[in-house]
């Protein structure tokens, strides 16, 4: 494989020219606004309005502080380092907010590019490589993607574990209703046709604060280990951006372990041991000092049966009720996935063995579905361990409960999630993971989840908005 360095970032697209124009316009607007604010006399406010304004300012400051604090490099591992904007050769050219920029108005950073001005031909790759749109319904192409990711995708900071998404999982993640094959973007070595890089997009609907958006969700960006640091990732990102623009989509949502300009929010991973001995053998966790293994194992022991009356696997007939429950529950968060149709819920929530499991609670008297939860199966390969190849992990996905009272909701969640742990244990899962998003902090401590080393930063492309705490986030990405 030729490792020639290529910089695909020198071509400037019409969108980039438009962006520069828009930035100038924004600057002029901000200057005008500042001049207006400084010359006009302040309106008279009622004490209640003043109090509300103060509370809002404090809330914003607290959120900003929480994010800044979480972004400090020392305690959070190397991937959480915040680099200077000037050292982001690629990201400093993109329509994303800059680190440190104060955000006053929500909205797009650059205007939509008119269709006839969108570049028609793919970005140029180094001459040894070619673009290849993957056909995931073809078993052998799906297998090529599986092999690329299983050997080269996300690892923890210490390179001990690597995500091992199954082929079936990838089909689920990449072929939701309305998916576009052209957003499954591969790069092959022209001579051998070997797949060496990938990025994907899927259509998604979200609400961020009060803005509903149909956009693209970007995931599975991967460059083969032997081709790292050669600026291939920016070319892949520009190409998926171009293909999104061609479909009339100008905003994106994505998550990454690394800190880029600029997170909307930052969440932390929490882990609940189900098989403590194996987790210690694989060094996924360590035995606390002065704790014998028997006591440690006992701490995480669970009942062998669930205890919520009416709990059962979700069935297709539950889809409409689950959609209503879920969208209602999501209304309390500021950044959420919107499940527009029953088809969406059928695809994303209904059980697919060894990919996602979902359970509902049906009230034994009324037969109404009152709650549901789901978790997806994503094992990690254990790198270089002679005794264990895989850690079997599940991740909490979407859920909903109905209690409006916070105390009642907390106790319901603790009750339900305990059953989720039991059900996962019955499937021979070693660890149950979640982020501190949604209302997960209501059960994390009580159900003996412990904080991990990993963080997940949430981003939007071409959308400026205020930062938020992880408890405001209701988007679960795979
Ligand atoms: C409107 C539609 C818009 C659609 C697009 C929306 C944006 C989508 C954005 C993508 C969302 C992806 C969501 C996921 O899938 S997150 C999962 C990412 N994948 C992995 O972590 C797998 C293992 N790692 C790799 O495969 C490579 O290290 C990757 C491919 C990550 C980088 O390859 P490589 O290591 O060989 O680097 P390079 O020399 O080619 O390029 C260096 C440039 O790339 C910037 N970089 C590094 N990591 C990431 C990252 N995770 N997101 C965005 N940018 C990233 C980096 O800051 C630098 O730019 P700058 O700092 O100099 O400026």
Automatic annotation (TrEMBL):
Residues 108-266 form the Glycylpeptide N-tetradecanoyltransferase N-terminal domain. It comes from the Eukaryota. This is Glycylpeptide N-tetradecanoyltransferase. Residues 26-35 have a biased composition (Basic residues). The keyword Acyltransferase applies. Adds a myristoyl group to the N-terminal glycine residue of certain cellular proteins. Belongs to the NMT family. Residues 281-468 form the Glycylpeptide N-tetradecanoyltransferase C-terminal domain. Keywords: Acyltransferase, Transferase. It is an enzyme of class 2 (transferase). Its EC number is 2.3.1.97. GO terms for cellular component: cytoplasm. It comes from Acaulospora morrowiae. Residues 1-51, 71-121 are annotated as: Disordered. It catalyses: N-terminal glycyl-[protein] + tetradecanoyl-CoA = N-tetradecanoylglycyl-[protein] + CoA + H(+).
């Amino acid at each position: 494989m030729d490792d020639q360095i290529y910089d695909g970032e020198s071509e400037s697209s019409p969108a980039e020219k438009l962006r520069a124009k828009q930035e100038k316009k924004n600057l002029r607007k901000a200057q005008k606004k500042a001049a207006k604010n400084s010359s006009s006399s302040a309106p008279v406010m009622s004490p209640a309005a003043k109090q509300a304004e103060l509370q809002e300012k404090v809330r914003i400051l607290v959120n900003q502080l929480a994010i800044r604090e979480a972004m400090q490099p020392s305690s959070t591992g190397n991937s959480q380092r915040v680099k200077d904007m000037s050292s982001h050769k690629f990201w400093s050219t993109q329509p994303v907010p800059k680190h440190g920029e104060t955000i006053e108005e929500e909205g797009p950073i650059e205007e939509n590019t008119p269709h006839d001005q969108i570049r028609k031909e793919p970005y140029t790759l180094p001459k040894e490589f070619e673009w290849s749109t993957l056909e995931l319904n073809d078993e052998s192409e799906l297998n090529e993607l599986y092999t690329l990711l299983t050997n080269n995708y996300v690892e923890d900071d210490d390179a001990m574990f690597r995500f091992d998404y199954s082929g079936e999982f990838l089909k689920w993640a990449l072929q939701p209703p309305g998916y576009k094959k052209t957003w499954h973007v591969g790069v092959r070595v022209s001579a051998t046709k070997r797949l060496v890089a990938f990025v994907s997009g899927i259509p998604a609907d979200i609400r961020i604060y009060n803005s509903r958006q149909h956009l693209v969700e970007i995931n599975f960006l991967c460059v083969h280990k032997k081709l790292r640091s050669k600026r291939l990732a920016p070319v892949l990102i520009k190409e998926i951006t171009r293909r999104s623009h061609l479909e009339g989509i100008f905003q994106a949502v994505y998550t990454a372990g690394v800190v880029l300009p600029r997170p909307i929010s930052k969440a932390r991973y929490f882990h609940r041991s189900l098989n403590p001995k194996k987790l210690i053998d694989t060094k996924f966790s360590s035995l606390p000092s002065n704790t014998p293994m028997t006591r440690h194992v006992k701490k995480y022991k669970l009942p062998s049966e669930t205890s919520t009356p009416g709990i059962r696997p979700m069935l297709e007939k539950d889809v409409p009720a689950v959609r209503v429950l879920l969208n209602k529950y999501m209304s309390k968060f500021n950044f959420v996935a919107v499940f527009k149709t029953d088809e969406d819920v059928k695809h994303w929530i209904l059980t697919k063995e060894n990919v996602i499991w979902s359970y509902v609670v049906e009230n034994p008297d009324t037969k109404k579905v009152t709650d549901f939860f789901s978790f997806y199966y994503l094992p990690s390969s254990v790198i270089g361990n002679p005794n264990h190849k895989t850690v079997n992990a599940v991740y909490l996905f979407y859920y909903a409960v109905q209690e409006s009272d916070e105390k009642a909701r907390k106790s319901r969640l603790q009750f339900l999630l305990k059953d989720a742990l039991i059900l996962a244990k019955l499937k021979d899962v070693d660890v149950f993971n979640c982020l501190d998003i949604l209302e997960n902090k209501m059960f994390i401590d009580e159900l003996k989840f412990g904080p991990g080393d990993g963080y997940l930063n949430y981003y939007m492309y071409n959308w400026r908005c205020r930062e938020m705490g992880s408890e405001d986030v209701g988007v679960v990405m795979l």
